[in-house]
Task: structure prediction
Amino acid sequence: MKAHTIRKPISFLQFVLRHKALYLMLLPGVVYFIIFKYVPLFGSVIAFQDYNIFSGIFHSKWVGFKWFDQFFTYPQFTRLLRNTIIISVYQLVFSFPAPIILALLLNELRQMVVKRVVQTIVYMPHFLSWVIIGGLGYMLLSPQIGLINQIVRMFDYEPIAFLQKPEYFRTIIISAGVWKEMGWNAILFLAALAGISPSLYESARIDGANRWHQLRYITMPGLLPTVMLLLLLRVGHILDVGFEEIYIFLNPISFETGDVIDTYAFREGVIHSQYSFTTAIGLFKSVIGFLFLLVANRVSRVTTGESLY
Result:
């Protein structure tokens, strides 16, 4: 019998040298994450210091959990946490499903010209800054010249100062966020839909499945891994609700429903230069987000079989 040749395992260094072109292409991305993502993590120690920019990290006074205690005992802490969680839940309920629905609708378009035109139109708001979105919002909602209030007047009602009424703030924020990012976020779901084999739909049609049955038993299971991955990542940022979009529309009148942890951290960190205090706030958000991610990942693995790890 002919003896089988046993291949000698190669070392990691030999493997890297054999595929050096691929690793060289990967190197800029790795360097970027090390410099801008991992190295700054060591700066989180100032959350436990009375940081002074002239003394630096290594010579600033250690104060333990002083800044965390100051944040938790802040008189408006409950309001900040409540507003942050409520807006985050609204984003999960309304903003997260919107690109999925849009992707499903776009996937049903058979005329490629129409499909591309619609895609271009819904993608465009993503490239507008929140400053421009804020200006458009102020013009649309203005009690004097706003289009919305012009429609209100048509029905013989008094104009509404939407931006000066706290009860409308969250609706405005969520609506603006959906309009701006819905088209761009739909790209991931369209890519996932493109990865579903057409033969599955052909077999389903032969077996007599209608559009609803195809959506329920083929399309949605095909989208599930992508949906769960993005949902878990979103849950991990449960206390990140988007500083820019809120800050643009926020005013002292709407603080009761719109002031969140990020806007408070901005005021304390940038305006009052409380670097250690705002680092403690950021660390608190990261720990809470990590715990939520662990729980959500476990629940997802048990219920759907999909998880991050």
About this structure: The longest helix spans residues 166-194.
